[in-house]
Structure formats: C-alpha cells, structure tokens
Fold this sequence. Notes:
The chain is of the alpha+beta class and about 725 residues long. It folds into 4 domains: about 5-240, Hypothetical protein af1432 (Orthogonal Bundle); about 245-370, Beta Polymerase, domain 2, CATH 3.30.460.10; about 425-525, Ubiquitin-like (UB roll) (Roll); about 550-715, Alpha-Beta Plaits (2-Layer Sandwich). The chain contains 25 helices and 21 strands. Strand 14 and strand 15 form a beta hairpin. The longest helix has 21 residues, at about 190-210. The protein starts with about 20 loop residues before the first helix and ends in an 8-residue tail after the last strand. The structure holds manganese (II) ion. It comes from Streptomyces durocortorensis. Pfam families: ACT_4, HD_4, RelA_SpoT, TGS. This is Bifunctional (P)ppGpp synthetase/guanosine-3',5'-bis(Diphosphate) 3'-pyrophosphohydrolase. Belongs to the RelA/SpoT family.
Amino acid sequence: MSAEAADPGAPLRRRSRPRIDLRRLGRVALRGPVSRDRLPDAIGHVAEAHRAHHPDADLTILHRAYVLAESSHRGQMRKSGEPYITHPLAVTLILAELGAETTTLTASLLHDTVEDTEVTLDQVKEQFGDEVCYLVDGVTKLEKVDYGAAAEPETFRKMLVATGNDVRVMSIKLADRLHNMRTLGVMRPEKQARIAKVTRDVLIPLAERLGVQALKTELEDLVFAILHPEEYEETRALIAAATGPDDPLETIAGNVTHTLRDAGISAEVLIRPRHFVSVHRVRRKRGELRGTDFGRLLVLVAQDADCYAVLGELHTCFTPVISEFKDFIAAPKFNLYQSLHTAVVGPEGAVAEVLIRTHRMHKVAEAGVVALGNPYAQDHASAPQTEPSDERADPTRPGWLSRLLDWQESATDPDTFWTTLRDDLAQDREITVFRTDGGTLGLPAGASCVDAAYAQYGDRAHTAIGARVNGRLATLSTVLSDGDTVQPLLAQDTASGPSPDWLDHVRTPAARIAITGWLTDHPDEAKPDPETVEAAGPGTQGEPADAPAPSEREAPGATAPPRTRSGPRTTGVVVEGPGAPVRLAGCCTPVPPDELTGFVVRGGAVTVHRRECSAAAEMRDIGRAPVGARWADAGGRESEAGCRVTLVAESFGRPRLLADLTEAIATAEAAIVSATVEPPSEQRVRHTYTLQLPDAAGLPGLMRAMRDVAGVYDVSRAQHPAPTG
Ligand code: MN
C-alpha cells in the first residue's frame, strides 16, 4: 500500500476553515528536496506557523536547532529516500500548527539527534538548556519503545516515567508517530499492521487523553486504512458519493446563520466534515447514512455566554433533539474538552448535530495539551493545593497522568500494571459523580460503587459494604451513571477486607491494584466459604437500576456478613443438637415445604440446604456429616420473617423486559434482595432474582405472574447460586 492510499487527507469536504489541516501543511513544507540552499525555506514554514500562534516568539533558537539537526542528520535517508531531516521538520511543523511553544518545537527538531547521530545529550544541554535536553531525552527513551515490543510491560512503565514528568514529551511523541504513520506506505505490510496496532492500542488513547483531537482523528483514519482496507474504501466511496451541490448541511447551516444574525449574535457557522472513522461509526450505529450524517455544524463565538445564547436561539427556532443535548462547558470532559452539543431537525426531517464553542475552546479541542504552553512559565510552587479529583488543576500534568504514575509506583507486578493501564486506556470516556460532601469524582464509564469507594477513601475502602446512590441503598457492584450522587458505606469493623468478586466490578486501576494487593497479602481470608455462599451470591451482582428499592434492604457488600437469621425461631427451621445458630443456604434458598439437610460450618453454625441441593450433595460426598433439619411447623409456613427464594427467569430479550419483570415481582409483594442479568446469548436472557416474600404460600402465584410476562418462557427455583464470575 502506498502512503497516498493510506491518506485520509485529500479531503473531499474539508470546508471548515479553523480545522487544522496538518497534511496539507506537511506537504507544503516538504515539497522538493531539502538541501542547504533550501534551508531558510524549510524552517521558514515552521517559523511562520509558530508566529501565527505566538507573535512574539524568539525564532533564533529554532534556527539554531534546525542547523544542528540538519547538519547532524546529513547523509541519512528515510526509507522513502527523502533526506532524514524531513522527518523532524514535519514533526515540528505539526506541533507548530497546533500552537506548541518554542521549547517544544526546539526539542522536536532535535528529537532524533541523540539516538541517531553523533550529537550527545550534553551537547544539547550546553547549547539549548536543561529543558530542551530533558524533552529530547524523554523522546529518545520513548523512541526505543515503539519499534521494539511495544506492549512489553516493563518498557511501557519506563515510557510512562519518561513522559510523566512532562506532558510535552508525549506531545512530541504523538506528532512523531503521526508523521511516521503518514509515511508508513514504504514499509512491508506486516510491519505496517504491527505499527498500526500499537498506534491503535497506545498512541490513539493517549492522544484522546491529552485532548489532541487533530492528531487523534488523523491517526484513527491512518490506522483504519491499514487495518481495515475494505471498509476504508467503502467509507471513502460513501463520502465521495455524498459530496454534491445540494448538501442538506449547507441548507441548515444557512438557516442557522440567518437565525443567529437576526438575533444579533455574532457567530461563525461552519460545516465540519466527520473523519472517515467517524462516518464509519455512524454508519455502523444507524445502518444507513443520511446527507446530514457526513458532517456536523460548528458554531464559533467569542464568549462562553454566547454559547448558551446560540443554544437558546437554536432550540427556539428549530426543533431540537433534546436527547442529543450535552453541556461540556459546565462539566468539561477529563481531557479539557469544552463544547455544547445539540442536534436540530432540518428540512425533510434530517437531523444535524451541532457543536457550539468559543474560539478558545476550539483551539483546546483541536490541540489539547499541546496548545497549553510551557508548564514552567507559571509558578507551580505557589499554586494552591488542589483536590486530586480536579482533572484541570494542572493541564500539563492531568489527573489521570498523576494517577498512572502513582499506580506504577504501587503496582509492583508489571503484568498487573500493564493490564490495568491497558484497560484504562481502552476507556473512551469518563463520568462525573457527586460526593455527598460536595466534591466530585471523575471515573471511567462503567465504574461501580467499588471504584467510587476506592477513589474517595483509598485503602479504607477495603471495608466497604455498600453505597447510597442518589439516596437509595445499592450494592457495591452497582454501575454508576454520569451525574449520580454516591456515598460509599464503610463497615466500622476494620478487620474485614475486599472480596475477590469485587474485581469483576472495578474499572479503575487504583481500585484493582488496591484489591489485588490486599488479597495477595491475605491469602487465607480471601477464600470464599462454600457455606456462606449467600454473601458471595446474587447479592454481589448488578442490580437492575429500575428495580424497586425494598425499604428494609441491606446494602449487601460481598464481604458483608451473610444475612443470617440465626436461631430456629427466625428461620423457622429446627435442627438436631444444642442451640446452634441456623442459617439458610444461599445456593438453594430453601422455603417450606422443601425437604432439608444441614451441615455444621465454621463457628458452629448450621447451614440448611434443600435436600436435593447439589452443594449439599458435594458436602456429603467429601464426607461432611449431615445434620437433621426440618421446618418448625407441620405446615412449614414461616410466619415471622417471610421467606427468601432465588428464582431464574428465562426469557427472549426485548425492550422493557426488566421493567415488566420487576413490576410483576413488586405486584406480588415480593422485595428484590438482589438480581443478576446475564448478558444475552442468542436473543435469550437469564435473570436471577433473590426475593423476599411475605409468605411462602405466595410463591406459586409469583412464579405464574412472572411466567405471564411477555417473552418469559420459564421461571424456576435456582439450584445453584447465581454465577459470580
Ligand atoms: Mn522521530
């Protein structure tokens, strides 16, 4: 594949002026052979781009860096046959276009000299100072990572240490990778694929994290072309076919311009084409593409307040799609991104997505941390102490990066570190949840109450037993949504520790590392006790968000003591022997008039199972002596505490199934203690509910009502505890 075939540029619809067209500028700068005669011209493009962002910049240091880089790389060729200097020049131009400051550009020009030429770090330090030297050294270390075993945990740790102290190292690295990806066509296909995969797995997530949208989108398209050539070609053809004189977005953009002008709001309305990967994603999501799906409207204004004025006009004069509205100005994303997002209905029902932001927000959206300047320009020592959850405290050292560095210190095992890091990078968005003390926590999407507990309390979260989410008691496994208020509940008993099950529910490396560390240090206590399976059973699984909240429900953490109702009176069970506490087994949840069998467990309590329970059979098989057990009354009706039962509903998946099932349960006056919904397989879903009924006599009626729910084809008593993963 040639470099041109992998080129997502040659844009068909790139009409949005503020969009930084890195490719075009890259080509302009490098047109023709670079020789000594062309020297002023070659660095001239960089200087021009730099001056556009920083009118007062001192360009002499750039010239000096160029002269050293050019002379030391002289005679070296890239695989394409071009002089080597074209590479650092192109990388520097990318950064200059994004608005990087002079020190970054200087280091970028020199970024390959120490590795590939006679130039030494000491020389760089002598001629360009400590900062440039530090950046060049960092990039040199990163360079070694790339084309070796990129995913090697130990190497990656080193890479983070190198970059962690200064985000500008990563900026240079990303621009370096972009230029290498653009010119990948000269490599063997296997090598192209390998480099593209590393780019996809490591560099693109980093670009996303650093908020460098311009680099991220181009890298995505380059990777797409290499790893999915057919789909890339299909997408290219779709975009070409959709490009015509009567673009529905043009019509809507025209209407929006008039509307805003009439309202006296000064704004620039542009059409911003989606990049190839974005078009492909929309197509995958919606099946068919409409003319308005190939781009989005971008409205640029001067002041923050103008953004809301524009929004008001759009929502008044057009039909808005309210579900598409998102306010990333009031609650910026973790990577500094700010914008209002909405969508309006245009002619013939076509929906156009609209982004509203100030010029400054636009620059940050495109260039992220690259545009934020020199971290040493401000006095950091005098900066006020900021909350660790405040991602925007220090833009050059964002919170997630600080966390990465903390993890790499606390995770002594490289594999754990690598796994958690990769998981963290794979998450494409974060949510913000509110603490009850007024603070906020930034968590990855899919994070649970376990994550929130560790984020808020650190290792003290080992004793977590549950949480309140929006005021309601919830299990630790409950997945949090953006905007939830969460209050983790800790046990007073500091001796208890996390359950291995918690690892199924964590998304944050900090929680994963803390739990893994505790379990490693306490190998005996981590073993689940087969008799207390109730505690590690369905209660630790996800609960349906729309399940009715039983008022008496405990907050069952996985390590919370099993919900024993000790003594024959409350369980309604009589066992042989002296007054040992009795608990009903969670695996088979016996209810009258089931035949019973008991086993003495640790601490002298007796756990009572249904006689046909397979867990009971196993215990008999391994030689455990059964203890006689029977229901207290002849009728076996447990009058005081009601009865607890686990039911499995097998259904065909459909919308609202969960809501209808929980409604049927609530109508039968049963309380949901816990619930598990397994991922659908071939259209079938299995829901497991542990329910508290006021009376065992109500069980047949409840099971009938659940079977009557549309789509449900079987409801049965559980023979086994719900899977805990
Ligand atoms: Mn390089």
